[in-house]
Amino acid sequence: MELRTLRYFVAIADHGGVTPASAAVRVAQPALSRQLRGLERELGTALFERGRGRLTLTAAGAALLPLARDLLYRAEGLRAEAHGLASGRLRHLRIAAPPTTITDVVAPFIAESRPDDPMPSVAAASPPELHHLLDRRAADLVLSPTAPPPHLDSRRIADFPIWLYVRPPEPEIPGDVVEIAALDPARLLVLPRHFAQRQLLERAAARAGLALDAVREVTSPEIAQALAAAGGGHAVVSDESRFGLRGVRIDTGGGILTMPVYAAWHPRHVAARQLAGTAERLTEFCASHFAQA
């Protein structure tokens, strides 16, 4: 089956006959009629009722028309995508990142996208699987708190503070910075161990000799902040402040506790140069929009 004959079928349906359709597709009427009959033979069913000088779709024709339109639309999209790839530019950009990064970084970045930017599609994934998506060509660009393996191209786009969020007023923590050794583990609301910020907190606490056995684990950054706002403790998360909480930076003794975010892409991607440019723009965006350590 050729796309050309499907295009003729759609044109005949839209114009109500072979004669007006022939002018629209610039094919002589006899040739267009032959193409239509050939398509009906190939499909094994009549597509139009003939009579009274006008063609009317049969039940089969009415059912197949939207499928034909969809095939033509997809084919046109394929041509456009191929043209873009041949020139080293994407029409659609597939981004993958952890849910918090999508909320705090990717969505605000997309909100300031330019008219000539590729149309983004965004998928949430956990850090251990993000870089595998690039190897499987299931994503074009990933953002991750873990350093990419050396076979990928990457850029460190930001270092976000891991905040201790407290409900004001909090006399036990009066300043904007607190030493990690001074924290009360029983008051800490932390994320599960597969979260990067939890892993970074535990490594910094171990270096400072602080045991985190008494911390309370919660399911998400939003719930951690909600519990902190309710007076249930202090949330240790990297996302933006919610519920009027005050953010306090954590001093590890060797600097402020931060979580890096890397952009990574495959070096053999046909649009690798464009992806590198997107990573550079993400770096500039994060520098201008977010408080960083």
From TrEMBL:
Gene3D superfamilies: 3.40.190.290, Winged helix-like DNA-binding domain superfamily/Winged helix DNA-binding domain. InterPro entries: HTH-type_LysR_regulators, LysR_HTH_N, LysR_subst-bd, WH-like_DNA-bd_sf, WH_DNA-bd_sf. The keyword Chloroplast does not apply. Keywords: DNA-binding, Transcription, Transcription regulation. Residues 1-58 form the HTH lysR-type domain. PROSITE patterns: HTH_LYSR. SUPFAM superfamilies: Periplasmic binding protein-like II, Winged helix' DNA-binding domain. PANTHER family: HTH-TYPE TRANSCRIPTIONAL REGULATOR YBHD. Belongs to the LysR transcriptional regulatory family. This is LysR family transcriptional regulator.
